[in-house]
Amino acid sequence: MKNPVSRYDAIIIGAGFSGLYQLHLLRDKLDLRCLLIEAGDGVGGTWYWNRYPGARCDSPSHSYSYYFSEDLLKKWTWTERYPGQPEIESYLNFVADELGLRPNICFGQTVNQCKYIQDQNYWHITTADGIEFQTKYLIAAVGCLSMSNKPVIKGIETFTGSIFHTGNWPKEKINFFGKSVAVIGTGASAIQAIPLIAEQAEKLTVFQRTPNYSVPACNHKLSAETSKKYKKDWRSTLEIMQTSRNGLPWLEGDQSLDEIDEPRRTKLLEDAWKKGGLGFREAFKGTLRNRKSNSIMSRFVKDKIAEKIDNPEVAKLLTDFDHPFASKRPPLDTNYFETFNKKNVALVNLNEQPIKNATPNGLVTKSETFNLDVLVLATGFDAMTGAIEKLGVTGRSGTSINDFWQDGPTTYLGVHVPHFPNFFVLAGPGSPSVLTNMPRSIEFNVEWVGDCIKYLENNGLSYIEADLSASDKWSKDNQKLAHETLFVDAEHSWYLGANIPGKPRLFYPYAGGFPRYKAACNEAKSQDYDGLIVG
Ligand code: NA7
Q1: Which residues pair with 205 in a beta bridge?
Q2: What span, in angstroms and rounded, lies between the C-alpha atoms of 505 and 496?
Q3: Could you tell me which residues come within 8 angstroms of residue 303 by beta carbon, excluding any fewer than 6 positions away?
């Protein structure tokens, strides 16, 4: 006889930053019967899967924490300016233990079907192993950068060496000593991994399609004194993060570069460069809105990078930028460009030398053959929608979310999707997510979902669903906001879906900044959830 299907009030998919907090909030504050389903065998989400060498966050560690609990803030001490993957994974394990979340997490199960049962108003969830669950509320906390993008390479299945994707890195330590290694991609992940792989590999070949700007991370250990100060000042730090356009612990500079005369301008740029980090991007006003100001900054960064590279041909290839600075997420690096001065490191321009095919021994381009032991795919993600579209979500009248989003994702406030009642997406398309210091926008989204559910429960209501015209307006207005920025100048950016063949071209995250996003959500809430249908 078949086991009875377990029934929950809320099911959350994904045990990263967003899923863990959502479980805590719904279980411990709203007293709901909750289950969190996670594909991995541990917590961490993005920080569970992205364990490649050098994986590190580019938000400062003291800001890359939950702020909803003073107790958690006080108990945890970060050791570096930018936390590495092992430390973030430990942090999320610490949170899961402190909050006692594990009994409500089902590990090692991949959800592949979520079906809304319309006449009874519940969601029926099925995992790849055929385990079934029912729930009133369904929350996708599957992350923005969790569906790996793997390039199609003819004959790749015949390659006898090892292949690793940065976004799905094995737990065991990979030894590159004495090996011939290739890295495809020069995005944020590659920029972190390449210097470390180059330290071990006999030979490292980097295949570049598009060069990327990168700012020195200037990472360092945190002194006990600094950590103490961060803990003491947490309230004022939070206030700044809540006001900042990106949820980061600083505010944009109040002068635009085109208003400042030389040589003061160069001095200020040099000072900001020395500090490094994402703060460089915001050291001046309007870097992503004022083309003139941005071109001054782009030129400065290009020159700074070129200075680090010995070979002029290599320098030209690595700085032949096709987009304004920061219109793609500018990575932070530690010795990335300097790595190309090493004798064991070579750069291949994929635009001149496209990969023709793989063989059992390696890769073949138009005019060269590369014998390889290891191939590292640092080729990014089907960002923001890829992981949601793998969940097999069908809503009212059997509408599939993949069909509904065929021409691009329509959401209301980046959380609700028309035709999908009681379905919530955390850090979804149309929310600020990847343009922010993620924990801040995640906390806001999680608390929003908590408030929606509380509203339904307290008022004896059974569902909440996005209104189609409000969602169309939200999504269209976001495209307008994006066109007021320089983000749309980066034609090949994953923010625009350009890295995935056939993906609709539009701006995926919310472009209006974190404070404006929160104001729009709060306004809707103050008007009895305007733009949402409740019943
Ligand atoms: P990214 O930033 O999307 O970088 C992926 C890199 O891989 C980038 O250089 C791509 O070139 C390259 N790529 C992608 N597909 C191919 C194919 N088919 N052939 C050759 N090269 C390819 O992903 P990351 O993991 O580095 O970083 C993701 C985010 O994590 C980052 O933005 C931060 O927010 C943190 P392209 O530029 O598309 O020409």
Answers
A1: 182, 346
A2: 5
A3: none
Please, is 172 exposed, middle or buried when counting C-beta atoms within 10 Å of its C-beta (0-12, 13-18, 19+)? exposed
In this model, does residue 3 exceed pLDDT 90?
no
Q: Compute the distance between CA of residue 134 and CA of residue 530 in angstroms, rounded to an integer.
A: 28
What's the pLDDT score for residue 1? 56
Query: Exposed, middle or buried by CB within 10 Å (0-12, 13-18, 19+), for 230?
Result: buried
Sign of CA dihedral 288, 289, 295, 300: negative
Start-to-end CA span in the chain (Å) = 37
Which atom of ligand 1 approaches the CA of 191 most closely? Answer: 26
445 pLDDT above the threshold of 70: yes
CB count in 10 Å sphere of residue 476: 12
**Domains contained in the chain, CATH given:** 6-147+396-534 (3.50.50.60)
The pTM score is 0.98
- Residue 4 confidence (pLDDT): 78
- Residue of the CA atom closest to atom 34 of ligand 1: 329
Ligand 1 neighbours (beta carbon < 6 A): 145, 149, 151, 166, 184-190, 209-210, 329, 350, 378-380, 434, 492, 494, 499
Which ligand 1 atom sits closest to the C-alpha of 377?
A: 7
The protein residue with its alpha carbon nearest to ligand 1, atom 35, reads: 188
CA distance 194 to 413: 37
pLDDT recorded at residue 474: 98
| Ligand 1 pocket, mutate which of 379, 382, 438 (most atoms under 8 A from CB) | 379
Question: In whole angstroms, how large is the CA radius of gyration of the chain?
Answer: 23
Between CA 239 and CA 386, with CA 510 as vertex, the angle to 5 degrees is 120
* Nearest atom in ligand 1 to 434's CA: 34
* Res 86 pLDDT > 80: yes
Q: Which residues, 6 or more positions from 364, have their beta carbon under 8 angstroms from its beta carbon?
A: 355, 356, 357, 358, 370
Q: Residue type for 456, please? A: L
Q: How far is CA 526 from CA 123, 452, 523, in A?
A: 28, 12, 5
